Amino acid sequence: MDLSRVPKIKNTDSNNFFLLAGPCAIEGEEMALRIAERVVKITDDLKIPYVFKGSFRKANRSRIDSFTGIGDEKALKILEKVSKTFGVPTVTDIHEASDAAFAAEYVDILQIPAFLVRQTDLVVAAAKTGKVVNLKKGQFMSPGAMKHAAKKVKDSGNDLVMVTDRGTMFGYQDMIVDFRGIPEMREFATTVLDVTHSLQQPNQTSGVTGGRPDMIETIARAGIVNNVDGLFIETHFDPANAKSDGANMLHLDHLEKLLTNLVAIRQTVNGL
C-alpha cells in the first residue's frame, strides 16, 4: 500500500518506518490532545509518518467491570478533534459490522482486532467504507494465513490494507513474536509490528492483563532490523493509572529516546 494514500499523513518521503501510536483507549479529550501533541512534535522532528491511535470502545475485556469507554460518539468526536487540531490521520478499532460506517465518519483507518480478524462480515464492512483497513494478526494464526484476511479486503474492492503482527500465544499467559513472519507478510501487504501488545501477559488470575514494558525497545529494534514497514506503540503519560492496558504501555516520557534510536537503526539498515 502506498503510504501517501493515507489522508493527512506527513513525512512520507523520509524513507522512515511509519508509526501508529497513542493511548489504548480514549479516556477523555484532555488526555488525548496531550498525548497527541507530544507524539506529533516528536515524530515531526524525526520525520516519522504518524497516525494517532485510540480505541473509541473497548469490547474485549477480561472482566465485566473493566473500562469500556466514555461513549462511542463522544470518543469518536475526540479522535476527529485530534485529527483536525494536529493535522494527522487517526485509527480506531471496530468490533461489529455496524461500527464500520459509523466510525468511518470520524477516522481515517479502521482497525480489526486480532480476535475478530476472521469475522468476514466485519472485515468486509470495514473494506466497503473505502477507508484504510488495518488487520491485526490473530494470536492463533500463522503469518501466512493473514493473506486470506487481506484478500477479503481487496476482493471487496478496497486495496488500502495493511496487516499488523501483535504476537502469537505461547502457553496460556505469554506472547511471542516470530520475526520470520515479517518478510512473509510483507509479500502480500504493508506490515506493522505491534510492539506493546506483543508484550502482553494475558489470562492473569486477577483478570487484569499483565505485560513486559521493559522489553519494548528489544522488540521494536528487532522489527526495524527486519524491515517492518511500521510500528504500533501504545503510550500514555501515566500508564499505571491508564484505564486499559497500562501494564504493557510505554511511558510517554520514554518515546522520544526510543524513536530516536529506532530512526538511527533504520538509517543503518537502509544503507545496507
TrEMBL record:
It is found in: Cytoplasm. The keyword Transferase applies. It is an enzyme of class 2 (transferase). GO terms for molecular function: 3-deoxy-8-phosphooctulonate synthase activity. Residues 8-262 form the DAHP synthetase I/KDSA domain. Gene3D superfamilies: Aldolase class I. PANTHER family: PHOSPHO-2-DEHYDRO-3-DEOXYHEPTONATE ALDOLASE (PTHR21057). This is 3-deoxy-8-phosphooctulonate synthase.
